[in-house]
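Quick one before lunch.
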Amino acid sequence: MNSMNRVLGGPATAYFPADVAAERWELDGPGEEAYAAADIALGLEGVSLSFGGVVALENIDLAVRRGEIKAIIGPNGAGKSSLINIISGVYRPDHGRVRMAANRFTSVPTQKLAHLGIARTFQNLALFKGLSVVDNVISGRAYKVRSTFLGQVLGVGRSRSEEADVHGRATKVLNFLNLTHVSHRLAGSLPYGLQKRVELARALVAEPAILLLDEPMAGMTEPEKAEMTEFVRAANREHGTTIVLIEHDIGVVMELSDNIAVLDYGRKIADGTPEEIGSDQRVIDAYLGIAAENIGGEGI
Ligand SMILES: Nc1ncnc2c1ncn2[C@@H]1O[C@H](COP(=O)(O)OP(=O)(O)OP(=O)(O)O)[C@@H](O)[C@H]1O
Ligand SMILES: [Mg+2]
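Model of the adenosine-5'-triphosphate complex:
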């Protein structure tokens, strides 16, 4: 299979045929008890991925504990987004596995992601720009809707109570993220910082156990970043959501994270607490030195 065949589509189109997903779905391998005892919500084991001659990820092991905020940092092209794309099934690794609770995947079934309790945002916004904010948020819960198309058209039976439920949850999330005042605006008409927040709302409405955030503060003004930081913290603290956070703003990363993994040229060069990472000479040489020069600038 060539490298492009492994790229299974972008945000809107990622798709696995059901039979392929079923074939790759593996349950309960050895070591599960040790894994559960350490309370690991999500793990990568020896994950590698390349695109033609470009090695995006090389033999990555990663453990994300239940309830923590784990940041993934590193220079441009280090493999951060590729890692989230593997966890969310957009890319299939060449080697290695993804573990989620009792499941081990050689390839994560994208269409089952929500049922596995995973939601994500994208580095480049992936909103339905021509839909209202509230409808975008509701789309984050589409996987839960079980009524038939006819039922939805007629507004009868299960569909009516489902609709009320989805609306109720969307309203709560919009309120939580201070988006109520723009809920009927077209998503595409909002300033960029608010669009990023709508993406977070769409991910949160699914009430995920694990939330993958790919640069949620990129391109934001400082006040917008501060607000977003508080929302991410609140999602973690108030709802117990486990969060994997990719972010270039080192100040935000140090403030928010329980643990940080550092990637450089597709390799994990460090993994530890903010204090450990901040004083790690390899990390300073590979990334923090450059990042510090960019604080207050455009980011890197
Ligand atoms: N779909 C793809 N096709 C070809 N190469 C890719 C693809 N996706 C990623 N790459 C390459 O893999 C490497 C890692 O890219 P990735 O997007 O994961 O980096 P990143 O750490 O997220 O960078 P950034 O901070 O710029 O977002 C880069 O060299 C990139 O060019
Ligand atoms: Mg990226």
